[in-house]
Design brief:
about 280 residues, alpha/beta, TIM Barrel, 8-stranded parallel β-sheet, globular
Length: about 280
């Protein structure tokens, strides 16, 4: 497994296993199978409702804790966010059954962002979160957070796939030492991704699947990715992407697929902002 080094020296696997939209009752088995396949980065969130199942799989795996990289995420908190964030973090730790997480992300750029971030800085300083970062931050919000706080986010996890490539976002992140991480790397199959002629043609030339081509494309862009599957065969296929490389022509062919537009939801849309900002979880 290849790793990236975050801006505070923490090493993070470049490819991991995501559990978004895996029902809680299926999560423990899926994570157990993913760990058996060789995944060591696990990505969950309070909002996913499956932290406890992830924790059970980790506990029962027998894998030394230091070999695992566990990420979870903070949902939107009201003021006083510093108190609420600490409570939410401790709840996540309890559900996971861990004494620390390797990465704690602010899940959305809403609520009392500054209060949330300062509480996250505190858990980072205490060693309870080895690294802290954000998710779904567009460049303006990310830069504002960087310029007005002490700790620069180690990671920004954003929608990134062949149809929404986020090149300008990545340029800004590189400038400020923030690691780009992708969610939705397969675009959930939208735009016929798995049968797309460009991606399928590259796959045929490489003797690889479209999924493997997409993951390899992300990795070659130095983007951490967290594919999800509940199928053990696909889990094994998705992690088998370190024995080939896309050449410059193939990378350029994928680059030409960029539409520059989200396929899921726009964080600048007032209706989406209102919906996300109103949703609350029990801490």
């Amino acid at each position: 497994m290849q790793h990236v080094t975050l801006n505070n020296g923490v090493k993070m696997p470049v490819l991991g296993f995501g559990v978004y939209q895996i029902p809680a009752e299926q999560t423990e088995r899926a994570v157990t199978e993913a760990l058996a396949a060789g995944y060591r980065l696990l990505d969950t969130a309070a909002a996913y409702g499956n932290e406890e199942a992830v924790g059970r799989a980790v506990k029962n795996s027998g894998i030394p804790r230091q070999e695992l990289f566990v990420t979870t995420k903070l949902w939107v908190q009201d003021a006083p966010a510093q108190d609420n964030t600490r409570r939410a973090f401790e709840t996540s730790l309890t559900r996971l059954g861990l004494d620390h997480v390797d990465l704690y992300l602010m899940h959305q750029p809403y609520g009392d962002v500054y209060g949330q971030w300062r509480a996250m800085e505190a858990v980072n300083r205490e060693g309870l979160a080895q690294a802290i970062g954000v998710a779904n931050f567009y460049p303006d919000r990310l830069l504002d957070l960087i310029l007005n706080n002490e700790i620069t986010p180690a990671v920004n996890q954003i929608e990134t796939h062949p149809f929404f490539q986020r090149t300008a976002d990545q340029d800004l992140m590189r400038e400020h030492g923030v690691q780009h991480q992708a969610w939705g790397g397969f675009a959930e199959g939208k735009n016929d991704l798995f049968t797309h002629p460009v991606l399928a043609g590259i796959g045929e030339a490489q003797g690889k699947s479209v999924a493997q081509v997409v993951l390899r494309w992300l990795i070659q862009r130095d983007i951490v990715t967290i594919p999800k599957s509940v199928n053990p065969d696909r889990m094994a296929q998705n992690i088998d992407v370190f024995d080939f490389e896309l050449d410059n022509e193939q990378m350029a062919a994928v680059a030409a697929l960029d539409t520059g537009t989200t396929l899921f939801f726009d964080h600048h849309d007032p209706e989406m902002v209102a919906w996300l900002s109103k949703r609350r979880l029990e801490n």
